[in-house]
Amino acid sequence: MDSPPPTTEQSSTDCCQGHQTDPPGPQSSTDDTNIQQNTTNGNDKGQRDSPPPTTEQKGRNAGNCSADICQGDQTDPPGPQSSTDDTNSQQNTTNERDKGQMDFSSSKTEQGSNAGDCAANRCQGDQMKGSQSLTDDTNSQENTTNGRDKGQMDISPPTTEQKGINAGNCSADICQGDQTDPPGPQSSTDDTNSQQNTTNGRDKGQMDSPPPTTEQSSTDCCQGDQTNFPATQSSTDDTNSQQNTTNAGKDNRQMDFSSFETERGSNAGDCAANRCQGDQMKGSQSLTDDTNSQENTTNEINLESFLKDLGLEQHYRKKLSLQNILQIDKKTIDDEPAKCKSHLPWHFLKKLMMVNVTARNVKYDSDKNSNDDGMSENTELDFNDLFDVANSEDMVNPLDVITALFLCSDGFVQQQMALKMSMCQFPVPLLLPSCDSQQCTLMLWAMRDIVKQYRPEALSESKDFTEERIVLSNLPMVSFVRLGECSLSKSETLNKLLSNSQQYHNIFVHHNMECGDSPRRISNGLTEITWYLPCGNKNIDIFSQPVAVANLRGDIESFETQYAFLCQASAAVFVFLDKLDDLSRLSKKQHHQTQIFLVGNIGDKFPDVTFLNQVTKTLGLTKNNLLFKKNQENYANFIKRLREAVSKVISKTERKMSIEQMANIAHELRIWVDEDFPECQTAKQHADAITAEIQDTLTFKEEQLPLQGQIWKELTSLEKEEFRLQKLGSENIEKRKSDLKEKIDTLRQNQNSKDFSNAMKSFITALSLPQIERNYFLKWMQIYLDDVSRIKLSELRDLYEEKRKSSENKEEIKQLDQQLTNSSLGTEHFFREMGQMYEASRFLPETDPSRQQLKYLPELCAQLLMDGFPFELVDGDASNIPLQWVSDVLSQLNEIVSPKNKILVVTVLGVQSTGKSTLLNTMFGVQFAVSCGRCTRGAFMLLIKVHEEFKTVLNCDFIVIIDTEGLKSLEGAQLNKNRDYDNKLATLVVGMSNITITNLATENLTEMKDILQIVLHAFLRVREIDKKPKCIFVHQNVSSAAAHEKNTQAQDHLLKLLNELTQTIAQTDQKECKSFSDIMEYNPNTGNFFIPGLWNGNPPMAPVNVGYSEAVYELKKSLIQPMENVDFGAYSICKFQSCLKILWDAIKHENLLLSFRDSLETVAHNRLRTEFEDWDNKFINEVKQWITDAETKISNRKSNNLTKSETKKLVKALKKTATIMLSDGERKILDNLTQYFSQTEGLVHLVTGYRENYEKKVKKDRQGLEKLVNTRLQMAEDIALKRYYRQNYV
User: Out of the domains of life, which is the source (predicted)?
Assistant: First the structure.
């Protein structure tokens, strides 16, 4: 980023010093492999900004290179020396030559510069001692051919003068290397390796390495060939060498980069440089050592060649942006597998953005498949290829794809990739190798967006949890590295270490995964990090405390910087190795007081106990620090011992560090930090200036964002009353409207009288920065504000839990509820304040300076929409739309994109916390807020570009996604929002949409009946909307494969219900609609999608369920398809703007019977009341008739000659009969109610809440009738007895 690459002189000096102190000793093949890989990676490192050196500088630097090679060999200690020592020297020499080489427009004066370096390395290669097999020669020659092909980008031969200069320098280095070469036998492989490295050297120096002067070339030449010893070489070696030389010539111009024309002669120099480097390898080596060494020498391809294979070469400088990878194109809905290497990055990104855990399966189908039909015709079976092993070298390692994409992406794409990888439980890059040098980068910015929730052991009883941004979490880190060869797969062992036996997950890529055995070409030196986070269940948790786990790819011998970083940042480092002899090298390294554990597979080998004691003393190790898998030991038992060791480290260590704090270590070690570049730091300073003043979010909003507070809510209420005049009373209409307008003007004047707050001044100033700085500023603001809100919400939740334990704190609990709702603070609040500032300024004269000062704000927000930032349509706190502000922003957006202004609008509706935002994030790769203790409030729109070639298919230029607040939210209840707000929101977003996704938590449709009624009524009542959107139902958390078939009956019932609702509402509104399809486009067979749960296991360690990602992908394909012969196609931004205004005015004018559901309840209640009155009246009439008959019977007692006692007895009997009759009548009505409410039709479900009231009414009516019966019978008895008295006693 900012660190300048060292000069060539510095490079050479470092090279010599490193060679002098390299201790003698045997070296494993893996060491050689990794070193050579890093030699290649080092070649291209500094190539970003450094200008090419002048001719004079070239000459001086070339001389220094040759001199350093000689110095390195002269100080070589006597005795046997491993190949790694020489290779390290060669590596550093080569690395430093190529720093600053990214300037492809270098002049012709550089053409001969590198020939001198070629010979320098040739002499080093020819000094290789010890016997080697013929197979080594063959592999070496194969790699020679490959090397020649790689760097020969249509390079023309140098001029005669340049040839002479370069030849001199070559000879000079040859003799320097041979002077110190002791005599001895040399195998044919040595010569072959010499040829091999010659070829690779040609590739390596072909950027901008400075040439030596002619004088230096001649001087070096005089010292050459004095001690060069002949070597015996087999005829096979010569033949292979000639063959590969021929192939190299034929393929010389296969990579036609015209920009390299001027460098034709310059690249020949470094060819020979690497030849001599490779040939100086000393000591005895096994066949595996040579093979791996040769393979990695072959892989010394410059980064650009590899990126060209992946189709990413143009993105190394012009980085991939989110707009590039999120745009809608043919690949979005293309299910074709990758056919070549250039398809792999896009397949990976496509799946990763949809959090698909199969994203790392980067195998491609080449055209080399055999013809099965031809084989079937053969009468004889051919078993020649039955036991062949597939060549993994043709495949690409997933780590290389990931590394390449991180290198070719801007900071925002890196951040999005890291977030999605974390959700998939993939490790994310901690130290990213630059591949073209020994430099690496701490990926702090890339991990800034990762937020984790977990429950450590201390919170398991309280059921509380910790939510933190992972780069700020102080956690112990345990690192795993490799020294030399190791038969244990480090990454596979880590996967077993971090996974439960019941649920294994491939966290780290390892050899036994698909393409995991492919040679790593650019990802050696990559350090990955993941986190183990407990859930609070001791039966599930592997570790009771959170821990970070780092994994270094490659041999630590080749990556000293990364190893030093891990030693300083880790609580413990676990070193995997097989050869205990390698421990002598480990003892020479600085470990910074970190614990070292040795892990290996000793098998049947018995280690040298004396040597082991000596080394472990030097390293300060005890027996507990040695974890060797014994012969035939159960692997599960070995993992158990490893877990115990890690657990002890976690529980006892005091070394805990956040990734943010690790940046200090990175700076000390001269490791780049990805957020250290000026644009990011400038943006951070602007964000710090605003957020540093926030002590309490509620207080900050009141003081710094005053226009969106109580004033805005009062304006909302006045605007609503202005349209509806619900409080008119007997007042004159015109006077009422005039009074309301006057109050609105007064409030706007109040807003304009307030000075711009310091926070808003700083915010608007930062938005005026250049685009890259502005985007970083907004991201920093989002990060800081989320952190502040998270801390505040955590404090309030803790206080709420404490207060709710006592029933005496009801008022305090109510206040805490309100604070929890209002304490969130995000960038949307700053944009909301901008909108209010702009709307208030429209009430000022046009010439007013304040109005002129703010008139550019809509254009600014329109540009942010183009950059991929969401824009608030509906203010969820005030339940209102700042219509002038939103309209002007949309107008500016239309001006920016015109004439390409057709949009397709997709909206999601659903009950709160049903995963609406997560669904959109997964489907389109965007990042609507889904955490931070707050849900979506209001409605937000986001713009996604459609690729030019796909616009004619999709018939639109952009897709607009609208994410909405959850309906029936608890927050809405706390804010005293009634159903009116849900109705308005649903009406608005559905009315503006081409496609409406109704999100359901399960396959049960009951919960959404109210919402469906809202939508239906909205479309019927708002007459101005001339649209028929498509309706899709998404049933989440449905894992059954037969869900669709099982719910066929439910879907038919739903459609019947929808049709019934449509007819009912149409009758109420006097509209002519007979079915749901008259209002919305809905097909029950294709309009239902069943999506399984999001997580595959128990969070926080559960990855995203691949079934979820695949189901969402199918939903996405159903949305993004050719819009032919459909009437819900795209429309212009202007029409979208007009539709918004029409809808909002209609919503404000009409009460829409608001709540929509009330009108249906009225219909349903009228039906129930009618039925009940029929039952009740019939019962009452029956009772009244019975009373009349009873009175008649009593009054006729004279004719029956009844005595007084007999009369009383008759009345008593009648009362008893009446009681039985009333009970029967009551029971009959209750039975009728039960039968009525058990119906599934007739909107009965809307009035189930009235059932209790009607049951009470039946009982009350019965009591009233019983009282009436008793009264009337008593009156009849009294009259009869009076008559009896008069007749008998008067």
Answer: Eukaryota
